[in-house]
């Protein structure tokens, strides 16, 4: 039986790569998309993670199609970068609402079925900036650091039920999110990456695939850097 998987923000970037990687390995994958069209060849459910109702409907649709969700990847995320003196309160609260409270909504809904099955895998997509900090990203870094405390607490709550919770901390990944940076900003970041290049979305997806595999059965509450060494030491 293929495993039922739900990936939020799975219509592009890292989320799409994770979805394609798991689907290619034989999983039954549902992806949420907030705007546009669902990606070809994957079961798409429309969902804005800032709405509990949307999240609930997305899970219900995925469950109706593929059975109880046993693997969840909370990947949906946004940036609204600016220095703190210029940051409007809604730029702070919106980023927290999507990146952190969104993951709370998704994980909470996911645990319902997982607790019943007494198995499950939850992966939260954080960021190297959770540990390093990042000027102009106080909102984003706070949301991504919050995911670590959230995920580790949840790992403690769910460990005895056969459910693992892990956090992936990508570094600089080539997606629409980073394409918004100008060439100087991109070069400055790449210079500090020991491996000397940005990650591809597939670099992240393959690590997520490992974390939800049988080989990672004894890993929970871990923060896995996938950053080419950028955050080394943190
Ligand atoms: P993209 O900007 O390419 O994609 C973001 C995805 O999140 C899209 O699918 C988007 O949907 C979805 N999304 C955003 N807001 C919401 C919402 N409110 N409800 C539902 N879905 C939403 O980003 P990446 O692929 O680069 O990033 C994916 C994750 O990885 C994010 O959490 C990001 O913070 C994290 N990350 C990225 C890094 C990078 O260098 N790119 C580095 C470290 C972490 P839609 O298409 O509808 O907008």
From TrEMBL:
Coiled coil segments of this chain: none
GO molecular function, one term: 3-oxoacyl-[acyl-carrier-protein] reductase (NADPH) activity
Record keywords: Oxidoreductase
Record SMART domains: PKS_KR (SM00822)
Domain spans labelled Ketoreductase: 3-176
Top-rank EC class of the record's enzyme: oxidoreductase
InterPro entries cross-referenced by the UniProt entry: KR_dom, NAD(P)-bd_dom_sf, Sc_DH/Rdtase_CS, SDR, SDR_fam
Manganese among keywords: no
Keyword Isomerase (UniProt): no
Record-listed E.C. numbers: 1.1.1.100
Record family assignment: Belongs to the short-chain dehydrogenases/reductases (SDR) family.
Protein name (database record): 3-oxoacyl-ACP reductase FabG
Species of origin: Sphaerisporangium rhizosphaerae
Protein's gene: fabG
